[in-house]
Amino acid sequence: MSRATASGQVRQILDMNAFRPGDTDAEAVERRLANLGAASVLFYREPIEMVSAEGAWMTAKDGTRYLDFYNNVPSVGHSHPRVVEAVSRQIAQLNTNTRYIVSVVDDYLEALKAHMPDSLSNVVMTCSGSEANDLAMRVAMAATGGTGFIVTETAYHGNTALVTEASPSALKRGSLPETVIAIPPPSVQHSGEDIAGGFRRSVEMALAEFARRGITPAALMADSIFSSDGIFADPPGFLSEAVDAIRAAGALFIADEVQPGFGRTGDAFWGFGRHGITPDMVTMGKPMGNGFPMAGMAVRPDHLEQFCADVGYFNTFGGNPVAAAAGKAVLDVIRDEGLQENARDTGALLLEGLRDVARADARVADVRGAGLFIGVDLAEEETGRPDPDLTVKVIDGMRSRGVLIGAAGRYGATLKVRPPLCLKREEAEQFVEAFKGALS
Amino acid sequence: MSRATASGQVRQILDMNAFRPGDTDAEAVERRLANLGAASVLFYREPIEMVSAEGAWMTAKDGTRYLDFYNNVPSVGHSHPRVVEAVSRQIAQLNTNTRYIVSVVDDYLEALKAHMPDSLSNVVMTCSGSEANDLAMRVAMAATGGTGFIVTETAYHGNTALVTEASPSALKRGSLPETVIAIPPPSVQHSGEDIAGGFRRSVEMALAEFARRGITPAALMADSIFSSDGIFADPPGFLSEAVDAIRAAGALFIADEVQPGFGRTGDAFWGFGRHGITPDMVTMGKPMGNGFPMAGMAVRPDHLEQFCADVGYFNTFGGNPVAAAAGKAVLDVIRDEGLQENARDTGALLLEGLRDVARADARVADVRGAGLFIGVDLAEEETGRPDPDLTVKVIDGMRSRGVLIGAAGRYGATLKVRPPLCLKREEAEQFVEAFKGALS
């Protein structure tokens, strides 16, 4: 692959780890491109037409079954019967908005809040994580009087205008506005062994730069497992110093739990839980309804009041009874099937299996993560440099071995290992075997 | 009601026509406020707990059945069995994102596009009308190089940061940014009998003001039935001159069809269809999935390309197969049950009935609309001034007569008549009777 092509490929991977179709001429792909146009983001150069899915498995039109390690939305398992039943029952009975009281909505909110720090006792329900982060940024501005946001350098927080400005990985051209500063993720490469101190110093440098610009900081916003940056989970607790630093400057900490939330990290229900911190706001989305479009923001009542004094906020679909039923079923399944514990145990098994591969193959430069959220760095054997070409080959090779997986990180050279939380031990083993096969 | 209270009441009505609970002590209300906090927007001072809904009717916990003339989301009827069946079937089979090809998604997009002008051949699916308008504004900026938006003075286009700035009715404090200019809606009060010319002149004055400010215009964005402004539908075609004016300035016309779309106006499938114009972009939402959270933007491929050159846009839940199944069922029901025709015919009956009331009662100052989207101005008998106090009394009086209805307009003195499209003649008659009763 030429340098230009490789660079383009990296760019495509960074563009949310997706590929546009290249040399495939399938009618279905043409049809999709005619419908979605330039906004079409199909996975793989030869995209897959899917017809059904169950548990950790997706089935293509040609009958091929794929083990899904890519899509972290159907987190309790594709087509989970309890979620299906809850949605089907509620949508047949009542689907309306929060201008009326509907008990299932408050039942859900109370069940959700039972997992939250007591201080975050208000929840605003939205349709997407993007809407939740858009709102959280505005609440932070209203609560602090500031406008400055600190994010990590390959962060992705969503697709609205405001949130895109705080999502370096979404920008193909142009630069961040002066109100947003991107700092390196909390990795050994950037901070050496003192991850906590290094990340705190990055936050402090950004605060100093805001001071130089005459901008009051509003918040540090971070995905607490840094998924788009390449997954940085350890050591637990490292976020605490940075959170202290941002608060010392009068600004807030927004925990974007869209990726790590709902038990995925195994150790805790939320990613921030691993760090012993209480965020000022928590945003959540993707796995919240196992695919039913829903998201939300947990917030301190006084902060929400400050925002609502200026703006009338209402979300037509947010907090509808069907979403609440889906969300309640997800919480029930996580509890009843012990999915957080399974994420911890099966995740540990998977991590160990991948580390075995790393010990035998120098191209597997690092394996790290928490629970069922693992990052695998792929590098050139001789130089140790991130290898996006190899990453693409491994992704394609795993596809041909029936495993779906994507990439992340600044160089697009980190496999983002993110299966449903119901993953079985034998499925984890199957993944490791496919990985070995794709590397060979 | 004191002047201060009346003014506060108007403010509350303008805040999306909703009331906070006042003197009710119901436990359910306390619970809701504890959960949603300052963002809670409950309808009526004594809010209603709903348990089920079907067709045009909602049933409260105490057994009271209400005729729903307020909620235009379940547009083909609450709990419509074909939508319920489509969602229940698809969610049990496959719910994933648009990185994979799933035929129901393209089936839906093609069915939707069959209702669109040929030029708008790309559709971006989102979760909410807010996300669709947020995206449309950015596409307009990318396509024109401009940043200026013209909206109407009580417009509401959604809840994201960018769209809120273009939604005068959402602002409780502060003012619009210099990139947004609000113009009067196309009403007789503002334009005399020459609605088309008056509205065009307002657009031209806003363009002149942008020139003075050194701002390049990006778009005129208008709900083509001006629902938040008080519902202005006639004469059909009046938008054409304003659209010509905005295009002459190198800017675009965004038709926000979240309210009037999907057959509601009776005369046409989209509100803009009544005006003989082809928008540069069409945004849609609320009734699109009959309550399933989904929305979208139809756009010219070249405009979308210009936007996507700068920003990687992806919407996790947008265009998921369950939304597509819901949306397809909605389109099928509108066609098979002749709901656009019913909106036209039952709407005409309702309009006539309301005009009969107006002829007999000077407080009913004006009745206007198209199909099943009708505005009813309530005014002081002596002065003819908009009467928000009377409007609140009528809304409460109709509630006690089993009819749900809200208000809109700059003064909060316009009843927003917006029942499901499946409304029966006898239900329209029942509404007129309840209105008469509430006035007496």
UniProtKB/TrEMBL annotation, chains A, B:
SUPFAM superfamilies: PLP-dependent transferases. Its cofactor is pyridoxal 5'-phosphate. Keywords: Aminotransferase, Pyridoxal phosphate, Transferase. GO terms for molecular function: pyridoxal phosphate binding; transaminase activity. InterPro entries: Aminotrans_3, Aminotrans_3_PPA_site, PyrdxlP-dep_Trfase, PyrdxlP-dep_Trfase_major, PyrdxlP-dep_Trfase_small. The keyword Transmembrane helix does not apply. PROSITE patterns: AA_TRANSFER_CLASS_3. Belongs to the class-III pyridoxal-phosphate-dependent aminotransferase family. This is 4-aminobutyrate aminotransferase.
